[in-house]
Write a structure and sequence with these properties.
By secondary structure, the chain is of the alpha/beta class. 32% of the residues lie in helices and 23% in strands. The chain has 13 helices and 19 strands. The protein binds zinc ion (ZN). Zinc ion is lined by residues 182, 188, 318.
Length: 433
């Protein structure tokens, strides 16, 4: 492990540590997960009581599980939760019974198209029990009586979630949200948890304009609960991203916010395009992850979702094949760097005013123009960026507008603006202007 210190490796190791834990929308798996993440990343852990009304929903019972297995007629333990927690239908009610194969089959879930893999199935809002297994194992089951045990409990308790706020210069917030309710699945969404943890560590060391709110929540019910209990805070959210499926080496996928062309949408696309990262862009649709709640019409927050292979579009999705070999340290690090680049655009997307707008000011006498005719493409690019910033800084164009129109990387436009602000030629417009 000579590469011990790479951020990607650190992210991967966090995923490895969280992988064996059986999580669900409530219960000790979520608590244990947040506890582990908290060791290196600060957060507040909230507990919301079972039965609490949250908009049209109610915080459900807390689910915990000790063990689950099936014993075949020959006495052999053939399905064992302790070997893979996907074997149990997540949120299963408890059972201890002996059933003939025909009856047992009503409670078994398989993937005939991928006969080696175990599916991930849940039953949150309807009390059921069940097991998931490979189709190959399923077709080998012999007639006879099977003993089934699910040692789980569904009782009054709490819904647990983690939250962290990094305060910036302004109260305006950027929201980052990931779901923490999936059991042993890596891309969806231990990769998102690892990315958010490292993004917190990175942003905590920066001087920030925006405040950044991070939510580690169970999918759907978690965002509904948070929104229901934080309606006033939600008004401060100006931009946001749902962080999911960021660990596989596939191309990026950006799902736009409901408004479709909000600043966050433009910032993400600017970064993906200018960095020449292969990517797909999809319009908002009211399915997927927690963007569904953030973008519900009563909130309509500018929240998109930046992932790699996304929701339902990769065969390993919601199966035992979304495991530690499906994700890579490099892909996670590239995803993190892409998120950081997006935050950099948001942080620096300001409006400036050219204080010398009548004809071009003379850059050479201010040391900003290479009068010897620079041969470096980068220098020429930088000089074009200076001219674009001066030309469009009339108080009505932001740096992102200028980057889009000039097709010059945002980071170069940002540097050009900083250089001009160091002279008498450019000043930041007042926020109201
Ligand atoms: Zn999922």
């Amino acid at each position: 492990m000579s590469d011990n210190d790479s951020i990607g490796k650190q992210m991967y190791r966090l995923v490895e540590e969280l992988y064996p834990i059986c999580r669900s929308i409530t219960g000790n798996g979520v608590r244990r997960t947040l506890e582990i993440v908290s060791r290196s990343t600060p957060m507040t852990i909230h507990e919301v009581k079972t039965g609490t009304p949250v908009f049209d929903w109610i915080v459900p019972k807390e689910w915990n599980i000790n063990d689950a297995y099936i014993i075949a007629p020959n006495g052999e333990k053939i399905v064992d939760f302790k070997k893979n927690n996907l074997h149990v239908l997540n949120y299963s009610s408890p059972i201890n019974a002996t059933l003939p194969l025909e009856k047992l089959k009503e409670h078994l879930y398989t993937l005939p198209d991928h006969p080696e893999w175990i599916p991930y199935r849940t039953s949150y809002y309807q009390e059921r029990w069940g097991f998931c297994l490979s189709h190959n194992q399923f077709i080998g089951l012999k007639e006879g009586d099977y003993k089934v045990v699910i040692d789980s409990s569904l009782s009054d308790g709490h819904l647990t979630y983690g939250e962290h706020l990094i305060k910036g210069e302004t109260e305006d917030e950027v929201l980052l949200s990931c779901h923490i309710c999936h059991p042993s699945l890596c891309n969806d969404n231990l990769s998102g948890i690892a990315l958010m943890a490292h993004l917190i560590n990175y942003l905590s060391q920066q001087k920030l304009r925006y405040s950044y709110r991070f939510l580690f929540i169970p999918g759907t019910i978690g965002s509904i609960t948070w929104l229901s209990q934080n309606e006033n805070t939600a008004k401060k959210i100006k931009h946001g991203l749902v962080v999911v499926c960021v660990g596989d080496p596939g191309a990026f996928t950006y799902k736009r916010s409901r408004d479709g062309n909000a600043e966050i949408d433009r910032a993400v696309l600017n970064v993906l395009t200018k960095a020449e990262l292969s990517h797909d862009v999809i319009d908002f649709y009211p399915y997927g992850y927690d963007e569904r709640q953030y973008c519900s019409p009563g909130f309509n927050l500018h929240v998109g979702s930046l992932s790699r292979s996304t929701h339902g579009c990769f065969p390993e999705y919601h199966t035992s094949a979304d495991n530690l070999s499906f994700i890579t340290a490099d892909a996670m690090e590239e995803s993190l760097n892409t998120y950081i680049a997006v935050m950099d655009v948001l942080e620096n997307n300001k409006t400036y005013i050219n204080t010398s707008p009548k004809c071009e000011p003379q850059l050479g006498k201010r040391g900003l123009y290479d009068s010897t005719g620079g041969t470096h493409t980068n220098d020429k690019n930088f000089q074009m960026a200076l001219l674009w910033v001066l030309n469009l800084s009339d108080g009505s164009h932001t740096l992102l507008d200028i980057s889009e129109r000039s097709e010059i990387q945002f980071s170069t436009i940002k540097q050009a603006a900083a250089a001009l602000c160091g002279t008498d030629l450019l000043v930041e417009a007042s926020p109201s202007g």
